[in-house]
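Reopening this ticket.

The earlier resolution said the output was attached, but the attachment link was broken on my side. Pasting everything inline this time so it's all in one place.
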Amino acid sequence: MNIRLCTCTLLKSSRRVGFLPNRNAPSTTLYANSSGKDSDVISVRGKILSNTVLSRQHMTPEIALHLITPDCAIYHQPVGAGHHNSDNSGADTGFSADPFWGFFWPGGQALTRFILDTGHVFRGKTVLEVGCGCGASAIAALLVGATRVIANDIDPVALQATLLNAERNGITGNRLVVSSDNLIGQGADETHQTVDRCEVVLIGDLFYDTEIAADLHPWIQRLARAGAEVREDVSSVPVISGAIYCNAKDCGPLCIGESEGANISSHYFAFCPVQIYIGDPGRHGITETGVLSQMELRARYELPANVCLENSGFSHANVWQFRLPSDEA
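Inline output:
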C-alpha cells in the first residue's frame, strides 16, 4: 500500500478508517486468552502475519508490532488494491477493508510514547482505546500497569492484529478485552457499561478530518462533563507562580481558573472522572475545528526520520488532554 496515497486518502475521507460512526457495525468481544482457536480467526491471523513484518522501527521500540512497512508488498499497492484485485495484478490479501490497522500512525506513536513515559497516570486504571488499529496504546497501558484495557475498533481484523501484538509483547489473560462495538457517542448521557466504567480514554490519530471530529468532539465533551465537579475551597493547594493544579490523583492539569498572580481563593478546579488523551500530528480534525481550544498540551515529540518519510508533511506529534471550559464544568 502506497502510504503517501494512503495518508492523503485518509485525510480526505472519513469512510476509509477502521473506526467509523456506523451504528449497524457487527459487534465482537474477545479476550486475549481465548482468541486463537477458531478457524476464521486462524485464517485472519495468517493473512495478518503474511502481509506484515515484526517491527520496532518506531517511537516505542519497547513494543514489537506486526506492521505494514516498505518491506511488505501490500505497502506499495494503491489503496483498495489489497481486497479488490480483479485484474490479478499485485497480491490479493483477502482483507475486506483497507488495512489501516497495519500502520503505526504518528499520533498513535506519540500517544503510546507518552503512556510509556508517564506510566503512573495509567497504573491501576481501566482504560479504553478507541479506534485501536494495531493496539499499541492499549498494549502500552497494560505494560505500565493498567488494571484492565478495552481495545476498540469496528474492523475485526484490527482486533486480531491487536491481540497478536499483545501476545507478542507478553500480554495474556483477561486484562485485555477487544470489542468491535461502535462506542463513539456511547456512555455519559446514554448508559453504556463499557464506556461508563472507563477511567481513561485514549484516542490516537483519529481526528483525521472535520467530519469525524464532528462526531468525536461532542462525545468526549459529554464524557468529560459527566460527574465533573467544581470546588472553590483549594486552600490546601500550594501556590506556585504560573502553575496550574488539579487535586484529582494523577489527573494532570485541569485548572480552569487563573494562574500567575491570581488570588488562590478565586481558583476553580475541575475534577473530571474520565481522563481523555489524544495523540495527533496536526490533522484537520484538530487544527480546523474548535477542538483545540479545549485541549491541554501534555507532550510534543519530534518524529523519527523514517516516520516523517512515511507521513509526508508531519515532523512532530502532540499529546493533548481534553479539558472542560470553565462555564461547562
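Reporter confirms the inline version is readable. Confidence is low (pLDDT under 50) at residues 3-28, 84-90, 229-271. The longest strand covers residues 295-302.
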